[in-house]
Amino acid sequence: MAGINNRVKSTNDIELKDRLVAINRVTKVTKGGRTFSFAAIVVVGNEDGIVGWGLGKAGEVTTAIAKGVEAAKKNLIKVPVHKGTIPHEQVAKFGGAQVFIKPASHGTGVKAGGAMRAVLESVGITDVLAKSKGSSNPHNLVKATIAALGELRNPFMVAQNRGVSVEKVFNG
To answer: pTM surpassing 0.85?
Structure first.
């Protein structure tokens, strides 16, 4: 999934905001009748380059959301955000969901739908074009979007690896 080198080590000093992406009601049929439980997928981020997702399951919605938030705090990644957008185009796939994200000029806004929008806004991206293809399953869309963000490369690291200036990376 996301690159290991992008993992965030400590969450103690980070102010994270959580967003509920989807709630799924699951039914288990027993001889005594139906038993309902809930699965909640949650995205957390500090809106400044850090994002993570989590899945919580419980008998009540609020408990499932709380468990999802705790799970999300355990797998945070750092995303390079450059002037409110992403540094380059990226494609990623998870299960049947395929996502395509592309940088956009200032003032464009977040052109993405549903589950992708929650992830992109949580990471702090203000201008981006996004497209999802294939499955619209929110679980797989969230995982594919975070995989795409995890594969993004910081323009300063690219310049350092190539031994050139940052302006030369952008201007060719």
So the answer is: yes
